[in-house]
Amino acid sequence: MPILSREDLLQAEQDGHITISERGDFSAFSLDVRIGKLYKRNEFRAALCNEHDLSQEEFLGQICEEIPLEDRVVLSPNNFYLAQTLEEINLAKGY
Questions:
Q1: pLDDT tens digits, the chain, 95 residues: what are they?
Q2: Secondary structure of the chain in the HEC alphabet?
Q3: What pLDDT score was predicted for residue 37?
Q4: Torsion of CA 44, 48, 52, 58, to 10 degrees
Q5: Per-residue confidence (pLDDT) for residue 16, from 0 to 100
Q6: In which region does residue 15 sit, left (phi positive, over 0), alpha (psi from -120 to 50) or beta (all else)?
Q7: Torsion region of 94: left, alpha or beta (phi above 0 gives left; psi -120 to 50 gives alpha)
Q8: C-alpha distances in angstroms, 70 versus 37, 66, 73, 94?
Q9: Predicted pLDDT of residue 67
Q10: Exposed, middle or buried: residue 43 (CB in 10 Å: 0-12, 13-18, 19+)?
């Protein structure tokens, strides 16, 4: 799937392919969302198990470390982060 522009995102929303509860604004190529929880992948822990066999809850508990959301969070490059949004986002197949 190619990167969608603001116009593409708005059209997909109008067509019912994308629904987002309480959504923020679309910028040029992104959607503003609020982060409820933020996790960082722990590569050492990931190397100790087969993460593909884990449920979502097991993955978060065994592979990821929750990052406390304070006034400011710095995300460093070359790391894998997972964010749980406060918005519910539904995407049609292909999105």
A1: 567 788 888 898 999 998 988 887 877 777 788 889 999 988 888 888 888 888 888 888 888 999 999 878 888 888 889 899 899 888 888 87
A2: CCCCCHHHHHHHHHCCCEEECCCCCECCCCECCCEEEEEEECHHHHHCCCHHHCCHHHHHHHCEEEECCCCCCCCCCCCCEEEEECCCEEECCCC
A3: 92
A4: -80
A5: 92
A6: alpha
A7: left
A8: 11, 12, 7, 35
A9: 92
A10: exposed
Cα gap 13→19, rounded to integer Å: 6
> For residue 62, what are its two tokens?
């065994």
Residue for token pair 């190619």: 2
- The letter for the amino acid at 29 is F
